[in-house]
Amino acid sequence: MKYFSLIAFLLVCSVNANAALNLYPFDDEVKKERFANLIDELRCTVCQNQTIGASNAPLAKDLRDRVYRMIQEGRSDEQIKNFLVERFTDFVLYKPPVKSSTYLLWLGPSALFFIAIIFLLINIRKRSVTESDEIDPEQHKRVQELLKEQQKDNNHA
Amino acid sequence: MNVRALLPLLGFLVLVGFLGFGLYNDPKKIPSPLIGKAAAAFDLPDINNPDKRITNKDFLGKVSLFNFWATWCPTCREEHPLLVDFAKRTNVPVYGVNHKDDRKEALRWLQAYGDPYLANAFDPQGTIGIDYGVIALPETFLIDKKGVIRFKKAGPITSKDIEEILLPLIKKLEQE
C-alpha cells in the first residue's frame, strides 16, 4: 500500500511516454527505438530543461516531426544530429561534444574533485604530524639505539 | 591577518562571479551558426496571391531583409512599425514569412498596420522555421546578393540595430 501512489504515478508516466511515441508510427522496431532515443537526447530550444520528447512546446513538436521525417527518409542518427546542430548549435544536444569550448563543462567537475582530494590529503598529513604524540616502532628503535650509544660514550668517558 | 582565513572569502567571491555570469548571461541567446551559410531552400505561396510562389531564389542579386512574423506574436507587433519605417527609408527589399498563422488574420494585420513587405510567404505549418533555426518569433535575417545569411537577430530588431548594424552592413554588402 505504501508504494501504491508511486506505482500509480509511474504507470501514468509510462502511459504518457507511450502516447507520445504512438503518434509516430514506425513499421520497423529499430527505427522506433532510434526515434525514442533521439527525442530523449535532443534538447528543446525554447524550454531548455526539457527534451523534445518531454516538451509540449510547439517547437518541440516541430522538431519531433522533423526527426521522425528524417528517420523515415533513412538518415542516420549522426546526420539528424548534425542537421540540428548546424541550425541550433550544440544547445540542442543534452550530451555536448568534447571540444575546446566545452572542456570546462566536461573536465571541470573532475578537476574540482581532484583539487578537493589534494587538499584533503594535505590536511590529513598535516594533522598526523602535529597531533600524534606517539612514535612509531621504527622511531622507537632509533631512540633506543641513540640512548645505547650515549650510554657507551658515558662508559668510555 | 592569516592568509588562510581569507580562503573561504575567496571561494565565495569565485562563486559570486559564476552566479553573476549566469545571471547576466541570457540562456535564450543561442549564437547563430547560420551566419555565412546559404539561406535554406524553400518554396511557399505568397500570402496575397496563393498562385504565386516565393522561394529562396528571390534573394539572389540584391541584399534583402528576411523577417519571420505572426499575428499571435506580441513582440512582432512591437517590431512592426520599425519594419514599415525601414521599408520606407531604404530600397532594401523586405521579405516576410508569416509563420504558423491564419491567413485572414495576417492580411487584416497588414492592412491595419501597414505592409513593409515586398512579398510575404505564407507558412501555416511553420515548415521552414527549423531550416532557419527559428526558436521564437520574430527573427530577422540579412541575406546578401548571393543568398548567404550575413546577420541574424532573434527577437525584435530595434532602431539601434537598424542604425548601428543593419544600415552599415547593408551599405557594405551592396558593394560586394
Essential attributes:
heterodimer, A: 157 residues, Helicase, Ruva Protein, domain 3, 2 domains, 6 helices, B: 176 residues, alpha/beta, two-stranded antiparallel ribbon, 19% strand
Question: Percentage of helical residues of chain B?
Answer: 25-40%
β content of chain A, as a range?
Answer: under 5%
* Order of secondary-structure elements of chain A: HHHHHH
- The counted number of beta strands of chain A is 0
List the total number of helices of chain A. Answer: 6
Q: Could you tell me how far the N terminus lies from the C terminus of chain B, measured between alpha carbons in angstroms?
A: 64 Å
Q: How would you write the strand order of the largest sheet of chain B?
A: 5-4-3-6-7
Largest interface: A-B, 14 and 17 residues
- Could you list the spans of chain B in which at least 5 consecutive residues all have pLDDT below 50? none
Write down the overall geometry of chain B. elongated
Task: Give the CA-based shape of chain A.
Answer: elongated
- Please count the helical segments of chain B: 4
Proportion of residues in β-strands of chain B: 15-25%
Structural class of chain A: mainly alpha
